[in-house]
Amino acid sequence: MKNKHSMHKLLLPGTALLALLMLTACERPPIDAQQTGYRGTAMADINNPRTEVKTAAANQVPDPLPLAPAAGPKARDIYQNVEVLGDLSVGQFARVMAAMTAWVSPEQGCNYCHLGENLASDDLYTKRVSRRMLQMTQDINSNWDQHVANTGVTCYTCHRGNNVPSEIWFTGDSPAASASMAGYTAGQNVPAPAAAYASLPADPFTGYLTQGDEPIRVQTGALSDQDNYITIQQTEKTYGLMMHMSDSLGANCTLCHNSASWGNWSTSNPQRVTAWHGIQMVKALNENYLSPLQPEYPDYRLGSLGDAPKANCATCHQGVQKPLYGVSMLPDYPSLAGD
Q1: pTM of the full predicted structure?
Q2: Which domains does the chain have, with CATH numbers?
Q3: What percentage of the chain carries pLDDT values higher than 90?
Q4: Is the peptide bond preceding residue 191 cis, with omega within 30 degrees of 0?
Q5: Taking Cα atoms as reference points, which of 96, 156, 105, 153 lies closest to residue 126?
Q6: Burial class (CB in 10 A: 0-12, 13-18, 19+), 216
Q7: What would the pLDDT profile of 156-215 be if each residue is shown by its tens digit?
Q8: Phi, psi at 45, each rounded to 5°
Q9: Which residue, 251, 159, 168, is CA-closest to 209?
Q10: Helix, strand or coil for residue 248?
Q11: What would you report as the CA-atom Rg of the chain, rounded to the nearest whole angstrom?
């Protein structure tokens, strides 16, 4: 009897530890919930105040640099090898370069992209990549207003003072892509940050946000409806992408969807259309700008399969529905708005 009693005491801490581990994915109170739809429809916006404090700190907009005069010679006429922003005055050009330095390489300074003795040189890969990133920024602001509206983006939207944005992805770099004691996992059942730590496909991006035309759909029809049939595997990958989007925006599914009919576009919130354009935008950026830069990068900047870093929803949003809470930096840097 004594031995049984002692064993019981030993089991209690272990049981408590197991219970704690099982609850680590749960939100502890207080949690804020605001009803956004009719009562009983589960249309609510749920937020964690503790998370919001950290998110707010990460989404502060830096003060703009003092304006520079538009008068004077153009940058392209004074400096060599200026392929972007050459129509700015020398003062304006220097101001944008200083801002980019603060946004992307505050520690390394100008030498992160430029050779100190020869600013015109393209020898550093960072300069070649930065030039293409400037063109991509102007493209977003000029041609993707269905998603970014008048707010637009700047280098700071993604970089936030880092050489490389904190939120990027590579093909095959998910935990599920490596060998597992469980054997073949079909790319899932290994909780991964890409899918908000759900046991869904750990790579919800390839085929959706890159080349390919995989359908972002869920299984709703009968098995006999071969023309519209979506497999369980495709459905799970779609859910993985949706989990990523929800986590990236710090939002619930009901931001875009009506819980009474998840797939019905006519009763969905307007944000669903904005999100659709966002998916098309990110896919185009990865195809036309980011993936083609692969030859420019040194090996240590590439993924395990040799691919270039790519963007997803989190790259810009970083935990909020509108990057930087919707504050536009373009009025202070209009040259990044493009045509």
Answers
A1: 0.85
A2: 63-166+318-339 (1.10.468.10), 171-302 (1.10.468.10)
A3: 59
A4: no
A5: 105
A6: middle
A7: 999 999 999 999 999 977 665 555 555 666 677 777 888 888 888 888 999 899 977 788
A8: -105, 115
A9: 168
A10: helix
A11: 24
